[in-house]
Amino acid sequence: MADDTSAAAGTSTETGAGTGSNLRTTKPGTKRLFLTVSVLISFLLGAPFLLKSTEIHRSPLPSAAISSLSDHLHSNPPSFPCHFQAIFLSPFKPSDSSLSLSVAERIRAQLSAQSCGNCNFTVSVTVDSGSSCRDEGDAASAACLWECGGGGLVDAIEGRDDQGIDELLLSAVNERTGGCAGRVYSVFVMEGRDERVVIGKHRHAWMVLKDLDDSTSVVSMIGTVFGDYFMRGGVEKGEYIPVGSDGNVVLSFSLLNSNPSDWIYDWDFQRTGEVLLAPVLEALAPVANITMESQVLYHAPKSSISYWDEKLEAYVVNTRDLPFFVNSNEWHLDTSLSASGRSKVLQFVVYVPSASECPLYIRTPEGEMSKTNAFISPMWGGVAIWNPPGCSMQSQGIHIVRDVLPPQELEKIIEIFIGQLRLLFGLNSNYVEPSPIFKVLASEKGFTNWELDLLYRQHTCFNLLSSLSTLQSLSTLVESLPRMIVMDEIGKQVELSLEAANLAERNISLGINNASALSSIRARALAEDAFFHPSIMSISYSSMEHYFAIYMPFFAPVSLHVLLAAVKEVKRYFAERSKYLTFRASKLKSS
Fold this sequence. Notes:
Strand content: 15-25%
Radius of gyration: 41 Å
Mean pLDDT: 80
Low-confidence stretches: 1-20
Strand order of the largest sheet: 3-2-1-4-6-5-17
Distance between the termini: 31 Å
Number of helices: 14
Structural class: alpha/beta
Shape: elongated
């Protein structure tokens, strides 16, 4: 302050002396300048700490790896290694020089187009008639060729039923087929009087034909078995498969008593139903994590109208009225506590009609009663109508019957539900054979091995593409919002999802279908968990405009005054210093 006071005094003295109006006789002080600039510098030094304290945490995402794998899967859809072998147990002289090429061409003709989940197949043909043995196939199928010496199978098959033949051929395939990557599907061809083509419940079929001289017809039938059944599951067009994005499916079984004033039925579902369904759930484990629950509901009438049919002597519901059968207002079915938000719940309902509409049947468009008296609702579930024994309109109001659904009746209903589950998973409930000589064996676990292979391939392909699409959407979203919070948990889930997808692709190349399906489920579930993480949905990922709008009211007023004061003080200092220098120059000039 002494410097500033003396400076002011020096200036006024000169002015008063009349030697100059804008001259300064003393050097201006720097204390005011130092204090003002110090305050400004302290604000500038504090800016990095402010930015660090308000920094948005963003866990790094492997965007390049996601884009690379996604482009690879879209340009080259997953293709599973499969080997098709035709084994002639009777003498056969084909008209074509290369029988394996003919069979391969026939299989390709059965396929509409190369799609995700199809087989990258090789073909081999072996004529093993006992007296001679000849192998034919491409180089890729050398490790999968049938070992000669199976001519005695024809005699062993004689006198066995289809189930026995199926198990016999299974042991023969395991014994005489070399190890190779992927699934091996076999068709045994033999000569006999009783013509038939049987598709087994494992991964083989057998054909008994009267005449093997017509090689074109034989090759056509072999191609039909390989292409239509083993490759496509006997389905013309695949349907959507009802699995939740987290890989979980809840099967909810409900017994509905339409009017408990007439009769009340209960069931022992845990003792009978769960035991019968356990093999089905075990077979579908690589496709989805399936859980079951059951309940009994009362006062649950249907929505559609039924009427008396004199010809059938029963109340009937036409198939065109089935979409209105489910009463969403009275059927309180959504009671699952085990299903998360992304799990799929399939409802399976046993409907017990009231005495005023009993017996109740579904009438087909042909005017006949449905054989199963049941129907499905795609993506929802299925309904089976069960009429109590001896029910009629005359029994209405006589007395209330309290009983338990008989175990044998429950077994029949469970079989119907398994057929409906097959339909919901995109397979046929009952196969319609292309020819009277065709027959498809059913499996006790509800799905044959070649059907499960098809489901594994379809689910693996769908889950892989879905998971990569979700990961790429998440990566694009994060890149488009620079201030979006990405927690470490999200980054870890993305890495694990990508790792599971790569593992599924490796398992595909090795032909391990069930393991690839399990890995693909994990990849999709982790990708969905990362995309719908609560931190993404609840925490504000604000833009820079929002950022400035929050902090400007706190720091702008003070910072603006400090900046203006510093600018003003710097201007004043240089103005006073200019006056002093001018005074010095004039003094030296006068001396």
